[in-house]
Write a structure and sequence with these properties.
With 135 residues, this protein is α+β, with helices and mostly antiparallel strands. It contains two helices and six strands, in the order ββαββββα.
Length: 135
């Protein structure tokens, strides 16, 4: 099972200039996977750079920035991921699917290493026909 620990990005940002808007900061979510099965259900190998499903009721738009602090099964390290929203599963989605968002990993070396690590953890189960929470 995965565990979502919502956190708030640090600070409120600079005050808005007269008539200007406060720039929004990406949300920060701690995503903890304690079991391989939960990681399998959330992992998105179809995205070129990899990605994960994040259950959330918060409103997002495609392309929004999101910052994940990811913990993998049996690994004390936390992996920071500055991702983007790739798809949205709305509330009351068909088939009883969980509300949330798909987060696309960035195209960088750290993300490539993370994708390799996730795929090593999942091993042959990555080709399973078992349903997931993803596309």
């Amino acid at each position: 099972m995965s565990e979502i620990i919502p956190t708030r990005a640090g600070g409120l940002g600079p005050p808005a200039a007269a008539g200007g808007a406060v720039p929004s900061r990406p949300s920060v979510i701690q995503l903890v996977f304690r079991e391989k099965g939960a990681l399998y259900a959330a992992y998105m190998p179809l995205l070129t750079d990899g990605g994960l499903f994040v259950p959330t009721t918060r409103d997002y738009r495609i392309g929004d920035d999101i910052y994940l602090l990811l913990s993998l099964p049996d690994d004390p390290q936390r992996f920071p991921v500055a991702g983007k929203i790739a798809w949205i599963t709305p509330a009351n989605a068909s088939g009883g699917r969980t509300q949330g968002v798909g987060v696309r990993f960035p195209n960088d070396e750290k993300s490539r290493q993370l994708k390799i690590k996730i795929e090593e953890i999942l091993g042959t189960s990555i080709q399973s026909a078992k349903p997931t929470q993803t596309l």
